[in-house]
Recover the amino acids of this structure.
DNA sequence: ACCTGAACACCGTTCAAGT
DNA sequence: ACCTGAACACCGTTCAAGT
């Protein structure tokens, strides 16, 4: 006896829930079927197969990443604000973002942000190829930073870590530097500092 | 009848070869055993299990990434040269680097490069926390860039791609910009430009 | 149109038994 | 010390059969 009619939406919802909690590895067709109270094979009727189920989840995520509103007075400030906002949005959906990344859709997901950046770079007076380069440099920096950051979080304990490695002799007699590199990086600060440095150099002005 | 004695080194070599060619997904214990002409279970005696086999491959890769020699006259040039060299090294071992990344060992792999960067940042006159921030900013930028770049390469066809998306109206009446963003990014140029911009701003001088 | 169980071809891993 | 095959508990997917 079948339960109340299974829908594609229902399947996607349950799948998204599994992925959000434990990552895509935890999404097996059999577990999903158990969760939904159906036969494994019913899922295939609604979503084709596991791969296209994951594709559908990724598509959803791309849609959800809405437009970005710049904030600040100068174009440089507004660009940095977009960068920071992007970073936050990305960090709120770690597993799904990783899947978007794996499927090579990062670019498309970033289009609204890219358009906002174009606007600001224009306002700063850049045109043509130079403007394009500035936009792409910022975009690469944000995505790259988030990827590296996620990586660090997933593996907090390194052996040997920077901690042990940066003892006094190695650090060339700059104890303050040694201490700074021994502490874990503060990503928030590092990101803002990097973004400001990059943007200010790209625009040729702070 | 057993073949000529199987060694741990032989197992690692065959495994590395499989991974280099087709990625970690292609490394199954059964395929590896077939490649080596042994029973699947023999492999377990030598390397424990699949996970620690992959760990061993990663460890090898970390070792292989040797020290980096800076080149150039000014500290800024030498830092950019380290960044470019790092990027090249990383790109020569895509699958294995991805595995290092997944295991959170990127940091340790980068230590030799980090030390070179500290040296140059010092030569540029930075000290303490500010020097540390500069080193880390460069490091994050290089790793992040390579990750994003790899992502783009793996999925060359995007639908819709930047191509279609950046038609004239969208690009705010800057046809040169539209053309530039419609062309695929030239990573080599973009990387060098970004690295130069970042470094020059971090050091406060070109 | 939607659901089902059986079956297939794969996995990684354990273990008792061999030499 | 090293190797083996059998067995277990998992996978994703196909398919003929049901309603």
């Amino acid at each position: 006896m079948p339960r109340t009619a299974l829908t594609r939406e229902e399947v996607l919802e349950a799948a998204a829930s599994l992925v959000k909690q434990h990552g895509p590895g935890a999404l097996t067709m059999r577990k999903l079927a158990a969760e939904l109270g159906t036969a494994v094979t019913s899922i295939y009727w609604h979503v084709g197969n596991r791969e296209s189920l994951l594709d559908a989840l990724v598509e959803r995520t791309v849609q959800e990443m809405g437009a970005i509103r710049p904030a600040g007075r100068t174009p440089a400030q507004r660009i940095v604000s977009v960068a920071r906002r992007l970073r936050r949005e990305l960090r709120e959906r770690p597993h799904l973002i990783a899947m978007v990344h794996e499927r090579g859709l990062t670019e498309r997901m970033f289009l609204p942000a890219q358009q906002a950046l174009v606007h600001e770079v224009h306002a700063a007076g850049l045109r043509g190829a130079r403007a394009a380069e500035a936009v792409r440099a910022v975009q690469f920096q944000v995505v790259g930073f988030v990827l590296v950051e996620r990586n660090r979080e997933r593996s907090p304990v390194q052996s040997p870590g920077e901690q042990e490695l940066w003892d006094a002799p190695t650090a060339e007699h700059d104890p303050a530097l040694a201490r700074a590199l021994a502490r874990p990086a503060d990503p928030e600060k590092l990101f803002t500092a990097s973004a400001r440095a990059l943007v200010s150099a790209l625009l040729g002005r702070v």
